[in-house]
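Reopening this ticket.

The earlier resolution said the output was attached, but the attachment link was broken on my side. Pasting everything inline this time so it's all in one place.
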Amino acid sequence: MKFRILLVEDSLEDIVLTKLAFSKSNVPAEIDVVNDGEECLSFLRKEEPFTDAKVPDLILLDLNMPKLNGKQVLEVVKTDPELKHIPTVVLSTSKRKVDVEESYERFANSYLAKPIDFNEFLDLVKEIETFWLKIVKLPNSTE
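Inline output:
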C-alpha cells in the first residue's frame, strides 16, 4: 500500500529535496505537490483542477507561502469536519518560537524545522517515515 503525502511547498528547491529524500528512504509514498495555501485547500476539497485528487494520509505544510500561509491553512483544515482528521506536519525553515506556538495553537500535529544540510534532511525524512508511516495508527489505514 502506498502512503499518500500532500506536500504544500512553494520552493522548487525544497520540493526537489523532499522528493529526493523520500525516494532514498524506501518509503512507498505517492507525493502530490501544491505550491500555495489556496491550491492546498482546492486539492483537499477536490475542486478544479484537482477533482481527481486522492485524500492524503499526511500533509507536509510549509508556513511561508503566497496567497494563504501555512497558519491560515491549518486554521481551515483543522476546523473542517471533512479534513481535520488528516495529520498535518508543519515543515518549515523557521525555528521562531512564535511560529511553533501559533502552529500548535492551530492544531498542527507536529512541527519540524527543515535542516539546511541534505544528510540531516534525509535523517529527518527517515524519522517522518518511522513515526508517521510505521508507528502511528492513522484514520485512513485499512489494517
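Reporter confirms the inline version is readable. The mean pLDDT is 90. The chain has five helices and five strands.
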